[in-house]
Every structure is written in structure tokens, then in C-alpha cells.
Design goal:
- The chain has 355 residues and is α+β, with helices and mostly antiparallel strands.
- The chain contains 8 helices and 13 strands.
- The chain has helices at 2-24, 70-77, 98-106, 149-152, 184-197, 228-236, 248-254, 337-354, and strands at 39-41, 55-63, 85-91, 110-118, 121-128, 135-144, 157-165, 168-176, 212-218, 263-265, 295-301, 306-315, 327-335.
- The strands form 3 sheets. The protein has a 6-stranded mixed beta sheet. It has a 5-stranded mixed beta sheet with strand order 6-7-8-9-11, with helices on one face.
- Strand 7 and strand 8 (168-176) form a beta hairpin.
- It is globular, with a radius of gyration of 20 Å.
- The termini are far apart.
- Mean pLDDT is 85; it is low at 21-33 and 349-355.
């Protein structure tokens, strides 16, 4: 065990050094010329919703495994709800009317601004009551990537919502990619195909480009090159950050295959899959699956009109009704000064027209 820890620590240290060095070399958009991989961003001081940010967004992704306890939905959305937008991506959602349940849970504070549903892959965006005056150009799309979803009602693919809120152009994507550790190339292909296909029909070359793109979902990338029991020993010893060098998603991003130029918080929480349902114990079936960070939230800022700060990135350990733990993130956006004056003028105009 001690020898394994030393090897993993050294591999993790070298991996992080390579990623920092690549990030320090500057941003290059061309896959052919170079690539950035995924930049790991530090969590900023806790946001107190003091008004220092122009837009605070609370993200949740959860593979529900066909279950929908009402008390878990309440845990997901929180009690204080001082965020501006709630963006919830669901995978393996049950047949129950999740939208109605979310509306009822949030009725006192938030209203539905947009939804995109493809059977079990779902995405919802909620804003504060009376926030429709800040909302424009809501569009939805979806893209299936095959499988037996038509038979078992558990689709693979992605759903998306494009929205302009307070003048900020954003795209949110909830996805469920192919399972099993061996299917890395298939997941890479699905990511690229979804990226290319979403909102490709009737594309308007004059439309404003997205300033924020967020992927959230069960991406299904696994740990590779380590067996289940050594991985569990490290997790139980709170040494799970040593496993990040084995994470397929980070490996493939470093190779320039996926998520070029995206950001993600550090994987400081325990792997979110696979748990025994009703517990916080990893898989005790005969398969004894290797724990993995299958559930992720990644974001990308395009242009220089907004700055983003990440204030939390963690799993919700207390929810046990699925074999996945939900993951949440708190992202705040700040308009730069020139953009702020332009957007304030647009918002004032919207307010005047709505009166």
C-alpha cells in the first residue's frame, strides 16, 4: 500500500505540473496547433451573494438511476436559494413529472425559464420570480447518440438550452455518454459529435456568440490503470486526490481530444460512482466496479467580456437514493466595465418595454 501511494503521488504531482505548465503557455484555440486540456481552477472565497457579482449560477448534475424521492429534490435545490439561476441536469431520470416536482419545490422563489427533455436525459433552468424581463432568446436542442434508450427509456446523448440572461449569452448542456471503462474513444467521439450537432440547424451567422458554455452530466469517464481495491483504500484514507492522474477525462483532455480550453474545479471530493443504493458504500456486487468521477461540471468562457469565479465544486454525500452522488457547483460571473455599461443599457431598455 505504501509503495502504491508513493507511485500515485509522484504520478499525480507530475501530471499537475504538466497541466500547470500547459496552462501557463497561454490560450490556443486550434486543436491542430496546440491544446490546453482542462484547466483546474481554484475555489474562490465563499460568495456571500453581496452584489459583487452580476450573475450567480448554481449547477447540479445527477444520474438519478430512475429514482425520485421528494426529499432529495429539496436537498438538491437548497433552502436559501439566493442564487440567480439554477441549472439542473439529470440523467436516468424516471418517468415521473420531474418538471412539476421542481416547480412545486421552487414555487416560493423561482420560476422555470427553460427546459429540454429527451426521455431520461433532462435539463432545467430556473430564475428568480419575475425574471422573464431579463430573459431573451431561449432555444432548446437535443442530440441522441444511440443505444437502447427506446427500449429501457434511458437515453444516451445530450439536451441543451441556449439562453440570454441579463445580456449574457450562455449554453448549458446536460449529457449522458456511453458507459464502461473500455469505451474511451466512443465517449470522445460522442462529445465531438454533440458539440458539432447542437444548434447546428438554421445557424445564424449574425447571432451573438456564447460567452459561457457549461457541460454537466454523467460523462462516464472512469479511472484507468488501477484496480478497485487499491483505489478504495486510497479513498477510505482520504487520499483520493492521488487518483486524478488515472482519470480518463483529464487524460483525454490533455491529449487534446476533448474539452479543449474548458475549466473545472479540483476533484477534491470522492468519486461519485458506483455506490450501493441506499448507502455510501461503493459497489459490493460481483462486478466490484472501480470508483470513478463519472459526474462532472465543466465550463468555458469565450471572449473577454466576462470573468468567472468558482465558489464550490463538490458531491452531495447525503443523497443515497441512486448509485451516483449528485455534483454541484457555484459559478459567479462578473461583466467587465465596458460590457457592463452596454448590458445595463440593454436591461434598462427591456425593463422599459415591459412596463
Amino acid at each position: 500500500m505504501e509503495g502504491l501511494c508513493v507511485k500515485l503521488f509522484e504520478a499525480s504531482r507530475k501530471y499537475k505540473m504538466k497541466r500547470r505548465k500547459a496552462a501557463a503557455m497561454g490560450m490556443v484555440d486550434s486543436f491542430e496547433a496546440s491544446h490546453e486540456g482542462i484547466k483546474t481552477v481554484d475555489l474562490q472565497k465563499r460568495c456571500e451573494f453581496s452584489g459583487s457579482s452580476d450573475l450567480c449560477i448554481y449547477f447540479v448534475t445527477w444520474n438519478m438511476n430512475g429514482q425520485v424521492p421528494c426529499e432529495d429534490i429539496a436537498k438538491l435545490v437548497g433552502e436559501e436559494r439566493r442564487y440567480d439561476l439554477l441549472v439542473m441536469g439529470l440523467q436516468e431520470a424516471p418517468r415521473n413529472n420531474i418538471c412539476k416536482l421542481l416547480k412545486n419545490t421552487l414555487a416560493g422563489t423561482h420560476m422555470l425559464l427553460g427546459k429540454s427533455v429527451m426521455q431520461s436525459v433532462q435539463l432545467y433552468v430556473f430564475g428568480p420570480k419575475n425574471s422573464e424581463q431579463f430573459t431573451r432568446e431561449v432555444k432548446v436542442d437535443k442530440h441522441e447518440v444511440g443505444g437502447l434508450g427506446w427500449l429501457i427509456r434511458r437515453k444516451k446523448g445530450a439536451v441543451a438550452i441556449k439562453i440570454s440572461y441579463k445580456g449574457i449569452q450562455m449554453v448549458f448542456i446536460s449529457c449522458h455518454l456511453s458507459a464502461h471503462a473500455r469505451n474511451v474513444e466512443e465517449r470522445n467521439f460522442q462529445f465531438k459529435h454533440i458539440t458539432y450537432s447542437l444548434f447546428s440547424k438554421n445557424k445564424n451567422s449574425y447571432a451573438k456568440p456564447e460567452q459561457l458554455t457549461v457541460w454537466l452530466g454523467d460523462l462516464n469517464y472512469r479511472l484507468q490503470g488501477i484496480n478497485s481495491y487499491p483505489a478504495r483504500d486510497l479513498i477510505h484514507g482520504n487520499l483520493h486526490e492521488m487518483l486524478t492522474s488515472k482519470d480518463q477525462l483529464l487524460q483525454e483532455a490533455e491529449r487534446g481530444e476533448i474539452f479543449n480550453g474548458y475549466c473545472e474545479g479540483a476533484l477534491a471530493f470522492k468519486p461519485t460512482y458506483k455506490y450501493d443504493i441506499g448507502s455510501s458504500s461503493y459497489d459490493t456486487s460481483h462486478k466490484v466496479r472501480v470508483p470513478s468521477w463519472t459526474d462532472r461540471i465543466l465550463f468555458k468562457i469565450d471572449g473577454n467580456k466576462i470573468n468567472a469565479s468558482l465558489h464550490s465544486y463538490e458531491a452531495i454525500e447525503s443523497i443515497r437514493s441512486s448509485d451516483h452522488k449528485p455534483v454541484k457547483a457555484h459559478l459567479c460571473l462578473k461583466l467587465n466595465k465596458s460590457s457592463s455599461s452596454e448590458n445595463n443599457g440593454a436591461i434598462n431598455l427591456i425593463s422599459e418595454l415591459s412596463q
